[in-house]
Amino acid sequence: MEQTVRAEMVASVHSVVTEIGTPVSVGDTLMILESMKMEIPVVVEVAGTVREISVQPGDVVREGDVLVILG
Questions:
Q1: Are 40 and 33 in contact (CB under 8 A)?
Q2: What is the pTM of this model?
Q3: Taking the CB of residue 67, how many other CB atoms lie within 10 A of it?
Q4: Are strands 66-70 and 3-6 parallel, antiparallel or unpaired?
Q5: pLDDT tens digit string along 36-64?
Q6: C-beta separation of 48 from 27 below 8 A
Q7: 14: helix, coil or strand?
Q8: Range of the domain at 17
Q9: Within a 10 A sphere around the Cβ of 12, how many other Cβ atoms?
Q10: 39 φ, ψ (degrees, to nearest 5)
């Protein structure tokens, strides 16, 4: 079953700290977003394997944009 991780706010992608094919557990950090000079970690809420990463560092995301798909 796929799980979609979405942006919760408008932000810039500061860094991506995972790779496609990586198994992840609840609480693992997938990437760091930056908004108003604050770094916001995007963490896993459901364990799975990273299937797709939809953004790269420097991208600007809006609320609801797909960041990562877990399988």
A1: yes
A2: 0.93
A3: 21
A4: antiparallel
A5: 999 999 999 999 999 999 999 999 999 99
A6: no
A7: strand
A8: 3-70
A9: 14
A10: -95, 130
